[in-house]
Amino acid sequence: MNALILIGGKSSRMGTDKGLLNYHGKPQQEYLFDLAKKYCTEVYFSCRAEQQFSEQSIIDTYSLGPMGGILSAFDFNPNTAWLVVACDMPLIDENSFQTLINHRNKQKIATAFLNPETNAPDPLFTIYESKACPLLMQYVDKGNRSPKNFLQNNDIEIITSINFSFLTNVNTKEEFEQIKNQSTIE
């Protein structure tokens, strides 16, 4: 299983690159890279062409938001599962990685947490099995681009848990300051 860190967003609401924000003593994309490296064979960054900064970058050639990053990863290697994580989820830690991996069901096309805020699978911290690749392509070929809707309409493993705070997305400077000041962040 490889990891894909989604850093390709334009961060327009934040006003600065969300992957470079510092919550843990280093840029968030580096924090997630180091974390994912403990659990995955290879770790890559999904980014736009102008963001490419290392050989671990996979250029999003679809420009479909997170769905484009996921598809580009499967274009890069369709024979592996991809653990996808968005860079704007600063509360993800070793425990959340371990929980996702421990609940992985390789018989399903994906394993995802049920996000209580949306009452839907959270597509931005999910394991997509290799068998999801052709289904994702068919889904996009029909004009769809929502990974959440894709997960809702397919046979996936859903993880329910007591505490889902790690699924919190940070998209504005106000949210950044609020999360940065919480005691849960180092």
Shape: globular
In whole angstroms, the N-to-C terminal distance is 28 Å
β-strand percent reads: 15-25%
CATH architecture: Alpha-Beta Complex
**How many structural domains?**
1
Radius of gyration: 15 Å
User: What order do the strands of the largest sheet run in, or round the barrel if closed?
Assistant: 3-2-1-4-6-5-7
H-E order: EHEEHEHEEHHEH
What structural category do the secondary elements indicate?
A: alpha/beta
Percent of residues in helical segments? 25-40%
Word description of this protein:
There is one protein chain. The chain is α/β, with parallel strands linked by helices and 186 residues long. It has a single domain (2-180), classed as Spore Coat Polysaccharide Biosynthesis Protein SpsA, Chain A (Alpha-Beta Complex), CATH 3.90.550. The chain has six helices and seven strands, in the order E-H-E-E-H-E-H-E-E-H-H-E-H. Strands 3-2-1-4-6-5-7 form a seven-stranded mixed β-sheet. Helix 1 links the parallel strand 1 (2-6) and strand 2 (43-47). The longest helix is centred in the middle third of the chain and has 11 residues, at 66-76. It is globular, with a radius of gyration of 15 Å. The two termini are 28 Å apart. The model has no long low-confidence stretch (mean pLDDT 88).
